[in-house]
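Hey, resending since the last one bounced:
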Amino acid sequence: MKKSGAIALTIIAVILLAPQLSVEAQIPSNHTLSPLSEGLVQDVPYVWQEINGLCAWAATSTAVQAAGVELDLHDVLAATSVGLSFASVRYNDTWLMYPGAIYMQAEPTQFLADLYGLDLTMYLGSSTPSVDQLVEVWEGRGINVETLDGQSDALTLMRSTIDEGYPLLISVNPAWLPAADYDYLRDLGLSGGGHGILVVGYNDTDSSATIIDPGVGSFGDNFGYPVDGRGNYTKITYSTLIQAWSDRFYITVLLKSGGTPAEDPSMFLGEYIRDRLLGTADSYYADPNTAVLWDFGEGAFRGLSQDFTVQGLMEFFDVFTGMDGEREFKASLLMFLGLGLEAQVSLQYLSYRTALESLPGLMPDVDLSDFLSAGRMALPHFEAITDNSTLVSPNNLTEYTGPVASLFISMAETYNSTGDLEAVLTTHQNTLNEISDHLLGIADSWLAAGNALAEIWPNDPFVIFGPFIAVAAFAVGAVVVVVFLFVRKTPSQ
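The structure tokens again:
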């Protein structure tokens, strides 16, 4: 019997971080520092995350705007380059796909802080698993990291930050948040993983905090911008906040003014985007021990174009041949692959499209016409294989209407009945080839766009062909993993 691996291809939601533009951040003039029992940072802008998976960057936009840096969500997706990044790995029984928005968050945030002159400090609870290793890794990448020794330290940081006039960006388990949007997690008894919110006020008299939640309305039956204001300046008790925050090991990001911006921000950002699109390993902070297994940027889409063919899928599924419950497991896995591809590429499409639109405004001194022309060639390919249903309806298979999800659900059902995987895949070979061609089209567009930037800022051959540097063991942002249990059907005899 061959090794059976557990594959979790995730339908997502994210957490935490990233900074922004302009140097002169101002503490709101109507905020009075108070050494007493309450404080509130007033007039903090509300930024909606728009879709399940972008909470980290919406929360970052809110935080930096509160510090005087005027970048909206789409600007953040461009200026961090997460909208122009993608990573994947397929090795033995492991197959993972990461859009830039959830691949890693601490490092792009630090890049943005360096770009626009912001001061970034990250905090981790002292009980965080492998905390010393995490601190060492992040400090080695130029990130200032401090630890919090439990609830008392966390609340003290909250009070002092708010008294200074800044919101505090924290990672929480959303199952503890007050909005009814998260009832589905509570009803199913699920942990919500990680989600980014901001604390903007505290009141020791009634033991409550005031939060801003960018995630309400980003999924579920109430999908849509929260016009009722339920995510903006919402009360939560200290006890509930601590439960939500401690579930995420008190992961916290503090963004302030006070740094020195890059001397040539267009070049700094342009070279970074160039390398992310072209898949240069060190721009993805890769580790020499594991980077050779990963594909980045255009290479990730190029690899997926081979993986999502009849031959590529058969080679992957052969790893699980002979295991107990083989048919049922492979049927579930086949469905997960389709859901994972559609969800991850859909999130990438949304962040990529808006990042492209924002870049000219961030780099007004640069002629980006060739880059934009090349980059836009990817858009019709993205459109052909993406759909928001896997992001908006994370717990309802019946609402997955996208082309990739529908195909793979249908193939999984047929295989579970017949037991002949090769026949099922071959029947849909033409459609699989179309998906492969679209993935290859995205790869070709990203390659051309990266090369267009290399015409403006020539590549350093040592950087492009030098040793790989690693994929971070931990991303600051946590992904909400919602595993869909495949409905077991009795195979036909």
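The radius of gyration is 23 Å.

Sorry for the duplicate.
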